[in-house]
Write a structure and sequence with these properties.
12 strands; eight-stranded parallel β-sheet; single chain; 47% helix; alpha/beta; 423 residues
Length: 423
């Protein structure tokens, strides 16, 4: 499935008059507020989000999975799908892989396909949260934290193997998430589990290449329901600090207990120069992994505000989506998520940080809130659409996806019974 520039131009043509009217009106408003519109558009265009290979197929729950048609059955097809997403949105020029779901059988062929589609692979993710066919030792009672040294070594070796696959594909990030923990009091010794995990991570860290970073994720519960070895940002921070400057914390927006102040976590980690990356998603109850900005758009805006404040720090975070779609077409959902990420980033960029700082210093509480509310309530959709248009993308990617019958074409090419690998 390929979409050529002529198809995009044809789709945009009928919408251009309406778009131009809306954009010109918005641009005049922003200019009167001393906002450089062209600079704002360029910043939005430069924010590229990594699409995870596992989000390209229909996700599921513990109770069932309702697979859709035309799902990508191999890595080449996943690259094709991300190519379609990027052609429409001009917002996702890289892919995040999960090993062993995405082991490249021919690295050179994969790299050639990536080049053809104008994509790269930045991050590779290890998987020690489930047993694989033929695996000698089980992760039922943990992986990097396990009481059995042989299990720990197996998990370490897998992460090193993932690094090697990443090197083949010119990646530069290893992401580690652990399901390690316990479901009953007394099942596991907290201190031993922490020490075993850190020791295992040290063995992995020793193999991290120059120019790479290791991102360590955290999660307060699930699948362990009494304690997880790395439950929060503080525990992750303590470990990556012990490991060294190539290890940093990964913030998954769904990996927090209800009402956690995620923007404060982001600001703190950025201040400490340990904010390595993001998994963007949204949640209502726990780790729901649903469309970015679908539940808490204001929280997403506030997170981006902290990121904009810290843009002058030395580290550029790795931007990734981490989602699972059980009801929507996954490609449609990713297009919506990409739109919401760019939209809230653009809103955060319109905040006058000097004015905000002055009102904070003088303790003008109501005015501080007013500044943020005014920025959040701006309808910047025409500006984000203009950023796509100038980059050669679709004014309205979701409607283009439907009008160009992308899913129907994928079903015709791949059939109705294909199942995305890893799901």
């Amino acid at each position: 499935m390929n979409i050529n520039p002529a198809q995009i131009s044809s789709h945009n043509e009928s919408q251009l008059p309406d778009h131009k009217e809306k954009f010109d009106f918005l641009a005049n408003q922003l200019t009167r507020s001393n906002i450089d519109v062209d600079s704002l558009i360029k910043k939005v265009q430069n924010l590229q989000i990594e699409v995870p290979s596992w989000a390209l197929g229909t996700g599921g729950t513990r109770f069932g999975r309702f697979a859709g048609g035309g799902e990508p059955g191999n890595l080449i097809q996943k690259i094709e799908d991300v190519g379609v997403l990027n052609t429409l949105s001009r917002a996702c020029d890289s892919i995040s892989l999960h090993i062993p779901w995405d082991i490249p059988s021919d690295a050179n062929a994969i790299k050639q396909e990536l080049k053809t589609k104008g994509l790269t692979i930045n991050s590779v993710n290890s998987n020690t949260f489930q047993d694989q066919p033929g695996q000698k030792k089980s992760y039922k009672f943990g992986s990097l934290c396990h009481t059995d040294k042989g299990v720990r070594k197996q998990a370490v070796d897998h992460n090193i193997e993932v690094i090697e696959y990443g090197k083949m594909l010119d990646a530069n990030v290893l992401t580690v998430w652990l399901a390690d923990g316990s479901s009953f009091p007394g099942q596991m010794d907290f201190r031993t589990a922490y020490s075993n995990t850190l020791s295992s991570l040290e063995d992995i860290y020793d193999k991290i290449p120059s120019g790479w970073q290791m991102l360590l994720e955290y999660k307060p519960f699930e699948p362990a329901f009494y304690h997880t070895v790395i439950p929060d940002w503080g525990t992750s921070y303590s470990m990556v600090t012990a490991l060294g400057n190539k290890a940093n914390t990964l913030v998954d927006l769904g990996h927090h207990l209800p009402n956690t102040n995620i923007e404060q976590i982001v600001a703190t980690l950025q201040l400490l120069n340990k904010l390595g990356g993001f998994h963007f998603n949204d949640s209502k109850y726990a780790d729901d992994d649903i469309s970015v900005g679908s539940i808490k758009p204001y929280a997403l805006f506030l997170i981006f505000l902290e990121l904009v404040k810290g843009e002058q720090t030395n580290m550029e975070p790795a931007w990734m989506i981490d989602a699972s779609h059980n009801l929507k077409d996954p490609l449609e959902d990713l297009l919506q998520s990409l739109q919401n990420i760019h939209l809230n980033y653009a809103k955060a960029l319109t905040v006058d940080l000097n004015e905000l700082k002055d009102t904070q210093e003088s303790n003008e509480v109501a005015q501080c809130q007013e500044i943020l509310q005014n920025a959040f309530q701006l309808d910047l959709r025409p500006l984000v659409a203009e950023a796509r248009l100038r980059a050669g993308g679709a004014l309205h990617p979701l409607s283009a996806f439907k009008d160009l019958k992308v899913r129907e074409n994928l079903i015709r090419e791949r059939g109705t019974s294909t199942v995305a690998t890893g799901l």
